[in-house]
Amino acid sequence: MKPIIPAERLSSITEYYFSTKLKEIAEMNAKGMNVISLGIGSPDLPPSAETIEALCQSATDDKAHGYQPYVGIPELRNAFAEWYKKWFSVELNPANEVQPLIGSKEGILHISLAFLNPGDGVLVPNPGYPTYSSVSNLVQAKVLTYDLDEDNNWQPDFEALEKMDLSNVKLMWVNYPNMPTGASATPELFEKLVAFGKKHGIVICNDNPYSFILNENRLSILQVPGAKDICIELNSMSKSHNMPGWRMGVLASNPQFVQWVLKVKSNIDSGQFKPMQVAAVAALNNSEEWHTKMNIELYSNRRQLAEEILKTLGCTFDSKQVGMFLWGKIPAKYKDSGELADKVLYESKVFITPGFIFGDKGNRYVRLSLCANDKMLGDALERIKQLSIAGQQ
Ligand SMILES: Cc1ncc(COP(=O)(O)O)c(C=O)c1O
């Protein structure tokens, strides 16, 4: 038989780090090792009671099981627009400026397919969410990384950007509150990004899933006057509404950009299960008290424990970080973040994420997820205290 070989584009990517690492951890657990995972950012508590109630009720409706509109049900589009108005003071026309997504991650692919020709340049943050680069590679665009540095509060260096050859650049990924560094944006940063995008004809995409977590100064790039002309914002219910497995996200922009994305997306999926959309509407109406309890109070306790873990490991960190992770700089004695993360995994049976997976600027950092309860974080701290390295601090 003639050998079957995969498409060339597959050689431009590797399997997602967590996809392989979590298999290894499952094998360790199968051998009884009871690894505590502080890796992935998957909230461990349920959505609001109203959300679950709406899901269950809607599922009993015989008419709820058919294909749904490609653009999402009108109630969900309205609810996303209302949510943007309530929390970000951003006006969006529910008819044509929002597009519900099957998680914001898929939006990264749809935007890339809608805007990038092979060879077009894409500005990608280093460190940054790995999907920006891998999807850019899959669509055969040219990844141009821009550095985020601790000294510059993990914000883009506009002087350095201006010195790059931007003639072929179509798209720039930004992500504030930033993952993995926990850095916040400022209104001034968003203003500069909008001006930069307009000056060079570069679509600015702000990926914004973390604005509710340990953060009360919620910002959207769409707050900048005129931002919609050149910006797209992705948002997500995964983190802020405890719904990571539901795959509920949204894209917001001007009607033309939304239409281009829909042109791609409507050829790929056929909408989302109606009871999930109805339940998402209920979740988008979660009270301020619910958000404070789930997204601020709960994570504040965990954050203290995570800070203790980093201190025990000899890492330094910025205590003003926001979001559901803690990002810390590793001690000089380690070759890189991989060495420390492996040591912690194999000797303490605690999984922490090595920063190199976010780009070489993350080489000397590790990331801890706060999606583990106080008991797990406390146990992880105890285990790490036992580590020989901890004894040497
Ligand atoms: C920066 C960033 N963007 C997007 C996502 C994906 O979120 P969603 O669950 O909405 O696809 C994540 C999830 O970890 C993330 O960290």
TrEMBL record:
It is an enzyme of class 2 (transferase). The keyword Transferase applies. InterPro entries: Aminotransferase_I/II_large, LL-DAP_aminotransferase, NHTrfase_class1_PyrdxlP-BS, PyrdxlP-dep_Trfase, PyrdxlP-dep_Trfase_major, PyrdxlP-dep_Trfase_small. The keyword Transferase applies. Residues 34-384 form the Aminotransferase class I/classII large domain. Its EC number is 2.6.1.-. Keywords: Aminotransferase, Transferase. PANTHER family: AMINO ACID AMINOTRANSFERASE, L-GLUTAMINE--4-(METHYLSULFANYL)-2-OXOBUTANOATE AMINOTRANSFERASE. This is Aminotransferase.
